[in-house]
Structures are given as C-alpha cells and as structure tokens.
Design goal:
Adenine-n6-DNA-methyltransferase TaqI, Chain A, domain 2; 3 domains; four-stranded antiparallel sheet; 28% helix; elongated
Length: 336
C-alpha cells in the first residue's frame, strides 16, 4: 500500500442514479457547475420544469457537464453538507463504496482540477456541432494514486493553501475599497484632466520575431490571457509587440458585457497581440501606467467607454474617445 498504483477510473467510480422522484428537492435546490470547477445555483429557468427526473447529488459526489466548453470541462464537487439536484443532461458520480479506502474524494477533485486533466478530457471528447465528453470516456481515463495517508497529507496542504488564499482575497478586497475611496477623494479635490496628452501610440510589428507562445489576448477582467483564437496557419509577422509597461485594448465594445477589454503588461516579458488591437504607453514623467490602470479598473470608466462607443452592427470605443477620458491627475508622489 506504500507504493503508487495506477487505476482506471471505472475501477474507482460509479454513476449517481438516485432521482428526485418524490419531489423532495425544489427549484431552489437545482445547481449547475462552472469551467472553474465550482458549483453554483443554476442559471436556467426551471420553474416549469419537471424536477422528478433530476439527479440527486449528495455530499462528496461529483458533477460534470458532458458538453465541453473550449478547453475546459464544466465540473464540480459537493464538498458541503447539503444535497441538491442537477439536470438529467448532466452527469453525477461518486467513489465506489468498496474503493473509499483507496482514494479520497477530495484528492480525486484535486486531480480533476489540473489543467492537464481538462486537456485530456477535451481530447477524448467527440462530436460535430457539439463535442461531448461521455461517461465511458471518463471511465477509460487513468489515475496513479499514492497511499491513502499520502493523499490525506496532500489534501490537508491543499486546504491550507486555499484557506490562506481566501484570507488574502478578503484583505485585497479591503485594500481595494480603501484605494477606491482615496481615488474618490482625489476626484473631488483635483480638476478633471484629459489623458490624451500623456499617451503615445505604439505600433511595433514583431521586430523580435516572437513565436506563438508569446501571443496574448485580453479579457474584460482587464488581464492578459493566453489567446483563444485558432492560430493554425496564422503568420505572426504583422502582430504588434506589447512591451513591458505598455497598454493594449480592444476598441470593439459590443457583446462584452458592458466592459472594456484593456490590460497593462506589468511583466518583464514582451508579448504579441493582434494587429487590430490598440497598443500605447504613457509619459511616465507625468502619468504612471499603474495609476492609469487603477482608473481603467473603475466601473465608471467602463460606463464612460460604453456611452462613448459608436457604430451600428458593431460599436467601438476608438482612440480619439479614449484620449478624451478625464481623470484626476495628482503629483507623481501621490500617484506612486
């Protein structure tokens, strides 16, 4: 038992087959799952749905959506003390009773949380218009398990890291609230200043011959992310370089949830972004990019950008409108 051993998932898992036949669970008990492996209240309207066919999910049960979503699988683990139900379109499963001395559900969930697992699951998915990761495909996957005591130690470490992260996130939220409050004070103390005179466009086209690993996209959370575009056969010669401390944004504001996709490259690496994106930097003797990014993160900026976006089939927040954006501009000492 002290050595690692490899198992097929079929040896360890079995489907949840209990249905809500007696109607014990109601609409408020219906849950769904996200591609970030979280269980959430369902977004579907189930008020007129027959819930008796829905699967009952008990503590330590797993759920997943067989329909794949790009590069990730919608997945969840019921680590609560409450039971709930999921749509019959989804799949619920748990560790077999005779295998609970071999694998901990919490350890198994750590395995499912790995990006390598998502990649393998998507590779094993099949379909045309919709790709499906079937139960049989999951059962065919393999896992190498250490002894149960080693699993307990790994789970304990994982829980500790999650608790520390949650504590830090609470602290960051408090700091953000304090920072936002101070920015509001600056807005009342200082006259609004247009940012255009302190910005400079950049249009460097892959001078350093960077490769596919350097290509980045932008999220509406205002972060640089790995590109989701199909880059097969695409030449990178015309892609723009995004150098350290430079900004990039997507002028198209349609279908983005009323948010502007804009990001600051706060790393020491140079990236590549699509030629249709706008890249620029600030005059750092007058305007720090980190301070400007604080302003871009504010919900007021997103509302301003959407209001000043123009177009018919597609609305854009173009460069000239961005330059008209007004912010309080304190001294460099205050910005720092």
């Amino acid at each position: 038992m002290g050595f690692n051993k490899t198992y097929r998932m079929a040896e360890l898992l079995e489907l949840c087959t209990e249905q809500n036949i007696d109607g014990t669970y109601l609409a408020n008990d219906v849950k769904g799952m996200t591609i970030t492996k979280e269980i959430i209240p369902t977004k579907a309207d189930v008020k007129k749905t027959d819930l008796k066919k829905f699967w009952v999910i008990h503590p330590n049960d797993f759920i997943y959506n067989p329909r794949t979503h790009g590069k990730k699988i919608g997945f969840g683990f019921n680590d609560s003390n409450e039971s709930f139900i999921i749509s019959w379109n989804n799949t619920g499963f748990h560790v077999r009773k005779d295998k609970k001395d071999i694998v901990l559900p919490e350890y198994l969930f750590m395995h499912f949380n790995r990006p390598e697992w998502d990649r393998e699951a998507c590779y094993r998915s099949w379909g045309t218009s919709t790709e499906v990761f079937s139960w049989d495909s999951l059962c065919d996957m393999k896992i190498t398990l250490p002894a149960i005591d080693a699993q307990r130690k790994a789970v304990a470490i994982y829980r500790g890291l999650k608790d520390n992260l949650a504590t830090q996130e609470v602290g960051l939220a408090d700091l953000k609230l304090t920072c936002d409050g101070y920015l509001d004070v600056l807005r009342h103390r200082l006259p609004p200043t247009k940012i255009g005179p302190y910005l400079r466009l950049s249009d460097i086209r892959n001078e350093h011959q960077l490769g596919l690993a350097s290509v980045r996209g932008i999220s509406t959370e205002k972060k640089l992310i790995e590109t989701k575009a199909n880059m097969s056969g695409i030449s990178l010669a015309n892609y723009k370089e995004l150098q350290p401390r430079q900004f990039v944004y997507v002028a198209d504001t349609s279908r983005r949830g009323d948010k502007v996709a804009i990001a600051l490259n706060d790393s020491d690496e140079t990236y590549l972004v699509s030629s249709i994106y706008t890249t620029f930097c600030t005059d750092e003797t007058k305007l720090l990019p980190e301070y400007l990014m604080l302003m871009f993160h504010r919900s007021e900026f997103d509302r301003y950008a959407r209001f000043h976006s123009w177009g018919s089939a597609r609305e854009t927040f173009d460069w000239s409108e961005l330059c008209e954006t007004e912010i309080p501009l304190p001294t460099m000492k205050v910005q720092r």
